[in-house]
């Protein structure tokens, strides 16, 4: 449980795309190193270490080949783990901030800024490649939940739906696809907003959608009958989350609703939930919340929870009305 060599060796192989390079069969180490733009001697030592832990084969000295474990790390697998482990990608890099966990727990400093000199969001804003990699990871993640969210609520009752912190637009695109009447507006920071326009066009819903680049820490420059906010509140502490919700509530037309979509704790998924909670703490100083705590944050943001729809995947849609 406490070994660090194995996860770092696996992540190094994934980052260098060794599983892709050897997918068709064994290759000499020098050739693998050349194709991976790596140095043969240290790469060979990493691969040999992994062979003895069940990943890759070494059919003859200094020749390495694939096996099931290495194939599971190929970058062309839809929904595979490679992009999440890539040390050059937003989440693989953020995992490196765990070296500062003990100092965060001692109350000395938040982990990510201590590891990288600025916050996670500032890092993305300064590095388009990192920002794009994060949007792509969120795209994959949200593709898994969007169809459920889009079908579990009657979105057709709203004329205009804003997806705040909507990333690339996977959720709003799915809602618009399943419900032909409403129009959509996606609000996010400049980088994701740029990617969202292209994504919504690809999905064939851009004629019913617009994209607005804005921060949810300012009053939102949009009005809507429903504001959906999915997997965003966990990125923030209670005070920030309440401020975001206040701005969502203020953007509502009369009798509008804020729909919070979040993973909630349940007895079958506590390993995932607590892992997410730790990641949120380390990456962004956020936290995962149960329904009671979400309700308290909503109240602090001027919203009252009036309905709650649990989904099969552990997420829930928490429907709130604005207390004006
Ligand atoms: C965890 S992602 C969730 C994205 C999307 N809702 C989804 O479920 O795929 C959090 C989103 O919040 C956005 N975000 C972070 N800070 C923001 C801010 N100050 N204003 C608007 N959006 C912000 C990020 O760019 C990112 O798209």
UniProtKB/TrEMBL annotation:
GO terms for molecular function: O-methyltransferase activity; protein dimerization activity. Residues 99-302 form the O-methyltransferase C-terminal domain. InterPro entries: COMT-like, COMT_C, COMT_dimerisation, SAM-dependent_MTases_sf, WH-like_DNA-bd_sf, WH_DNA-bd_sf. Keywords: Methyltransferase, S-adenosyl-L-methionine, Transferase. Residues 5-73 form the O-methyltransferase dimerisation domain. GO terms for biological process: methylation. The keyword Electron transport does not apply. This is SAM-dependent methyltransferase. It comes from Saccharopolyspora hirsuta.
């Amino acid at each position: 449980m406490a070994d660090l060599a194995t996860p770092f060796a696996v992540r190094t192989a994934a980052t260098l795309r060794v599983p892709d390079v050897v997918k068709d069969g064994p290759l000499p180490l020098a050739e693998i190193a050349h194709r991976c733009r790596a140095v043969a001697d240290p790469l060979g030592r990493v691969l040999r270490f992994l062979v003895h832990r069940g990943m890759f084969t070494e059919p003859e000295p200094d020749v390495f080949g694939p096996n099931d474990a290495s194939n599971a790390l190929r970058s062309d697998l839809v929904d595979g783990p490679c992009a999440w482990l890539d040390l050059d990608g937003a989440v693989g890099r953020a995992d490196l901030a765990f070296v500062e966990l003990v100092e965060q727990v001692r109350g000395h400093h938040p982990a990510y800024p201590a590891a990288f000199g600025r916050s996670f969001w500032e890092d993305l804003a300064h590095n388009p490649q990192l920002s794009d990699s994060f949007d792509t990871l969120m795209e994959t993640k949200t593709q898994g939940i969007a169809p459920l969210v889009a079908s579990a609520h009657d979105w057709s009752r709203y004329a205009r739906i804003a997806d705040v912190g909507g990333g690339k637009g996977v959720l709003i695109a799915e809602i618009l696809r399943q419900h032909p009447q409403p129009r959509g507006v996606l609000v996010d920071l400049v980088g994701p907003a740029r990617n969202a326009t292209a994504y919504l066009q690809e999905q064939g819903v851009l004629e019913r959608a617009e994209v607005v680049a804005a921060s949810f820490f300012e009053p939102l420059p949009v009005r809507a009958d429903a504001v959906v906010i999915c997997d965003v509140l966990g990125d923030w502490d209670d005070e920030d989350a309440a401020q975001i919700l206040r701005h969502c509530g203020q953007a509502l037309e009369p009798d509008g609703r804020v729909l919070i979509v979040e993973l909630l704790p349940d007895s079958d998924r506590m390993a995932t939930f607590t892992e997410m909670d730790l990641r949120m703490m380390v990456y962004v100083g956020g936290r995962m919340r149960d329904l009671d705590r979400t309700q308290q944050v909503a109240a602090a943001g001027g919203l009252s929870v009036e309905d709650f729809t649990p989904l099969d995947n552990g997420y829930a849609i928490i429907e709130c009305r604005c207390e004006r």
